[in-house]
Design a protein that fits this description.
The complex is a heterodimer of chains A (about 260) and B (about 375). Chain A has about 260 residues and is of the alpha/beta class. Chain A is built from nine helices and twelve strands. Chain A folds into two domains: about 180 residues, P-loop containing nucleotide triphosphate hydrolases (Rossmann fold); about 50 residues, no CATH class. Helix content of chain A is about 35%, strand content about 25%. In chain A, α5 packs parallel to α6. The longest helix of chain A has 16 residues. Chain A is globular and about 55 Å long. Chain B is mainly alpha-helical and about 375 residues long. Chain B has one domain: ABC transporter involved in vitamin B12 uptake, BtuC (Orthogonal Bundle). In chain B, α3 packs across α11, α5 runs antiparallel to α6 and α10 packs antiparallel against α15. The chains are: A alpha/beta (about 260), B mainly alpha (about 375).
């Protein structure tokens, strides 16, 4: 198997006297989808933010493409190729898809007072990238607000990949979506993975994770409980790990296995 | 991975959008419709003189004075902020300009940049306070509205020894080479020639009835074109829409939201100062009451022009048409013999209509239901 693009070793993060992360180890290889599972409060958000350069770890090491790395800012992480798609997607509903796609990174042509954004290129690239992800836009000037939740997620993912993401961190991309849209987003993840991008898929939904994940790591109370490859673990086992074992097993018997 | 694909193939499942539907999505549509309506109304009720060359320039002149403010206000509104202090800024910048020219005796080449820079600094201060405190710009600049008005009164009394008017500006700048850029009429020679050739109306002595185009109209048109270019064709324009649409999302995508907003506050204040310079040079005096309530008229013109109060949507060319509607009504009422005070009723009515209309358009654009 290929070497990981990014490896985080025994990461600890303390906020004052609160220990948010207490020894988290995680890595992503190119072309795989590594799912990070955890219940609310397990430390998923803190961990993503550490990986994407928002927080600096209190202890532990980050290795990026074989070299030790400490990202000074989210911007630095982004430029290195770590793209994060947060739940709010960083998109403006009133703006056209193509303008959203290139927001903050507009291509220009001409110089001096005639320097202008290259709308033709923006539109063509946006249409092509979206088509690659299986979405046919009405036009590049369609406002993002008219897209469905799943389509918006796909625009955000396509944008990150287009701008050279090597690691793509997706923060609960399916949590607010319906069944069909979830399927679309999972299919998008599959396409991105096929392009050699390492995908970090954060979720608390075991079924969604099982659908696309190559490896699974469970986070509980700020610690990783270990990593398992596809086929080595069942969704019931994952579910139990996330909930900390015992309690959910007891709950499950009363709920008739519906959780 | 930055491949540029060949021309996109046409998707056969997508119907070509009809022209009307495409037009419906333009933010300035409301203003253009309003302009057609108002023009029709005055064509029907006002005397023909209103739409003669001199009549048109007559209503374009106040439109331009408002429009210089309204275009800047529209950019700021698209960027998600308000500036209620621009009306007072007109008086304040007028005082600074008057003091430079009369009290200090500086030439225009120094006085004008000084006034503009001073105003822009106050705009930057407004922006910094808004961004630092996270308070709504509405309230921060409302404070500015009163402070600048008060400072203009106090300052003018101090400069003149008790009067709220500073006179003698026309005399001070009469000989200055820059004066024709900011006051009077442009293309005087051309108009004289046209009158001689009998192409436009002239007095019995051969002088044209319209001596030229008031310079503020040229500034107004130039500003509208420049603002539209910036908004629609430059990265900065994209950033303005993004900053107003969702500041957090924009800054997460690498848009320098703070810089954009501060620059917009500075531009708005500088445009107020530009208007002040032109008004003061035209009138020959500066007055602490100058620009009274202009901030509201400018915002109304911007809203008629399609700007959303929530930011992130609007158009500079819309604000242009909004201002023309304004000028047309304020002057038109003297041509059709209506009571002038209908103007206020009209103003409120237009604002209400425009807001309702814009709200519907926004829902259409975003597909909200």
């Amino acid at each position: 198997m290929s070497d990981p693009i990014i490896r985080l070793d025994s990461i600890e993060k303390h906020f004052g006297n609160v220990i948010a992360l207490n020894g988290v180890s995680f890595d992503v290889r190119p072309g795989e989808c590594h799912c990070l599972l955890g219940d609310n409060g397990a430390g998923k958000s803190t961990f993503i933010k550490t990986m994407s350069g928002v927080h600096r770890p209190t202890k532990g090491t980050i290795t990026f493409e074989g070299r030790p790395m400490s990202f000074a800012s989210p911007r630095a992480a982004m430029e290195a190729g770590i793209a994060t798609v947060f739940q709010d997607l960083a998109m403006i509903p009133l703006m056209a898809v193509s303008r959203n796609f290139f927001m903050g990174r507009e291509p220009t042509r001409g110089w001096g007072p005639t320097r202008r954004i290259d709308l033709a290129q923006m539109n063509a690239v946006t249409m092509a990238e979206m088509r690659k992800m299986g979405i046919n836009l009405r036009g590049p000037d369609q406002a993002v607000g008219t897209l469905s939740g799943g389509e918006r997620q796909t625009v955000a993912i396509a944008r990150a990949v287009h701008f050279g993401a090597k690691v793509l961190i997706l923060d609960e991309p399916t949590s607010a979506l319906g069944v069909r849209q979830t399927a679309n987003v999972l299919a998008t993840i599959d396409k991105v993975r096929a392009q050699g991008v390492g995908v970090v898929f954060i979720s608390h939904n075991v079924r969604h994770a099982m659908a696309v994940g190559d490896r699974f790591t469970v986070l509980n109370r700020g610690k990783t409980l270990g990593t398992a490859a596809r086929g080595e673990i069942t969704s019931e086992q994952l579910q139990d790990l996330m909930a900390g074992g015992q309690e959910l097993a007891r709950l499950e018997s009363t709920l008739g296995g519906t959780v | 991975m930055t491949n540029t694909p060949d021309s996109a193939p046409v998707d056969e499942r997508i119907r070509a959008e009809p022209l009307v539907a495409r037009l419906m999505k333009r933010p300035e549509l409301g203003a253009i419709a309003g302009l057609v309506l108002v023009t029709g109304f005055f064509l029907a009720t006002a005397s023909e003189a209103m739409f003669s060359l001199s009549g048109v320039l007559n209503f374009l002149s106040p439109a331009a004075q408002l429009g210089i403010l309204a275009i800047a206000a529209s950019l700021l509104m698209i960027g998600g902020e308000f500036d209620l202090s621009i009306g007072s800024m007109v008086a304040f910048a007028g005082m600074i300009f008057g003091a430079c020219v009369v009290n200090l005796g500086l030439p225009l080449i120094l006085s004008i940049p000084l006034t503009l820079v001073f105003a822009a600094l106050i705009g930057a201060a407004n922006g910094l306070i808004v961004l630092r405190t996270g308070l709504p710009s509405f309230i921060v600049t409302l404070a500015g509205l009163f402070m600048l008005r008060g400072l203009s009164l106090v300052g003018l009394k101090w400069l003149t020894g008790g009067s709220t008017q500073l006179r003698g500006i026309r005399e001070a700048v009469a000989e200055d080479l820059l004066t024709p850029l900011f006051s009077g009429d442009a293309f005087g020679g051309l108009f004289a020639g046209l009158a001689q050739a009998g192409l436009i109306d002239s007095f019995p002595n051969g002088a044209p009835k319209v001596p030229g185009i008031p310079v503020e109209i040229l500034w107004f048109i130039g500003l509208a074109l420049a603002a539209t270019w910036v908004l629609l064709r430059t990265p900065a324009g994209n950033w303005i829409f993004a900053a107003g649409g969702d500041a957090t999302a924009a800054s997460n995508s690498g848009v320098p939201v703070r810089k954009v907003k501060i620059a917009l506050f500075m531009l708005t204040a500088a445009c107020a100062a530009l208007l002040a310079i032109m008004q003061v040079m035209d009138a020959g005096s500066t007055d602490a009451r100058r620009g009274f309530q202009k901030e509201f008229e400018a915002i109304i013109a911007a809203v008629i022009g399609g700007c959303l109060l929530t930011g992130g949507y609007g158009s500079a060319i819309g604000a242009f048409f909004g201002s023309v509607i304004f000028g047309m009504v304020v002057i038109g009422l003297t041509y059709n013999g209506f009571d002038q005070d209908w103007f206020q009723v009209f103003l409120g009515g237009m604002l209400l209509l425009a807001v309702i209309f814009n709200n519907a358009i926004r829902k259409r654009v975003t597909g909200e239901r």
